[in-house]
Amino acid sequence: MAGNQSPVAQQVTSIILLTEPRYAEELIPLLLACKNDLIVIQINHPNELLDFPENLLSAGRLISFGSRHYVPQDILQQFGHGCYEMRFGPVDYRGWAQLNFAVYNQVRQFGVVFHEMLKEIDSGPIIATRHFACSGHETLNELTDLAAAEALALFADHALVIATRRGPLAVMPQGWGHHLYTRWQFTSLCVIPMDVDADELHRRIRAFGEGDGHTRPFVIAENRVFIYQAKLLTEQQDGLVLHELLFAARK
Questions:
Q1: Among 43, 38, 40, which Cα is nearest to 18's?
Q2: Coil, helix or strand for 92?
Q3: What is the pLDDT, as a whole number, of residue 34?
Q4: Distance of CA 62 to CAs 2, 38, 83, 156, 200, Å?
Q5: Edge-to-edge strands of the sheet including 60-65?
């Protein structure tokens, strides 16, 4: 039995999906096709689980699908059939904002990982992986959509075991990469020297121009460009417009 699980219930009666509604619309039918009396609930944030009855969690399994939210250990251990993540990123892109860093690195191959969730992020036993080719020029939204499509296919391959298998899911003998991307690295790449060359500026705007995922900001001060700070752009001001604004400001 994995260390983050409560005693295994007799059968899986509930699946909690920590994901966006648009993904849940595709995931829920896959689960119900495998077990039509399954209780499937979509949530947006782990804090919502604090209001759920204990017996629902103890007979359930948590699936995080493309979510950036960290699930604390005290919540993980309440699920009788384990907690798993369908992660938009391969094993060598552990940590924070893997999609952003992949866009910055102009990857030609990317992937998704289905793994058990533990207290330490991106460290749990791996259930399965998928990889796909990229052009190296995808925007953040384009790479996200490609990863989501692969994750949906991987989920479909494992829907039956997710919906019905008691206890821990079978794992594969594959480990995680050693590099860990962090918020500090993300923020440091959002501070751009005013003498940055055009190619590097374009890469950073494409990868980090939307800031932390909640705003699309930039501010210029002391001969440096801070993409990560607090001025909102309109929906019409995409990365190319921001690119032009920054170049105009440094002339």
A1: 43
A2: coil
A3: 97
A4: 14, 13, 5, 16, 40
A5: 39-43, 14-18, 60-65, 83-87, 109-116, 126-133
Exposed, middle or buried: residue 108 (CB in 10 Å: 0-12, 13-18, 19+)?
exposed
Q: Is the CB of residue 82 less than 8 Å from the CB of residue 61?
A: yes
In whole angstroms, give the CA distance from residue 177 to residue 154: 20
Class of domain 14-164: alpha beta
User: How confident is the model at residue 210, as a pLDDT?
Assistant: 73
* Cα gap 30→38, rounded to integer Å: 11
Q: State the 10-residue block means of pLDDT for the chain, 251 residues long.
A: 52 96 97 96 95 93 94 93 97 94 96 96 95 95 96 98 95 92 84 80 83 55 58 47 53 46
Contact 219, 226 (CB under 8 A): yes
pLDDT at site 151? 98
Structure tokens at 52: 């759920």
**Structure confidence at residue 10 (pLDDT):** 80
Calculate the alpha carbon distances from 188 to 137, 147, 185, 204 in Å.
Answer: 22, 25, 5, 11
Place of tokens 């998928």: 130
Distance in angstroms between the alpha carbons of the first and the last residue of the chain: 62
* Residue whose C-alpha is closest to residue 215's, from 188, 190, 181, 196: 190
Write down how long the chain is.
251
- DSSP secondary-structure letter at 76? H
Domain boundaries, the chain: 14-164, 182-250
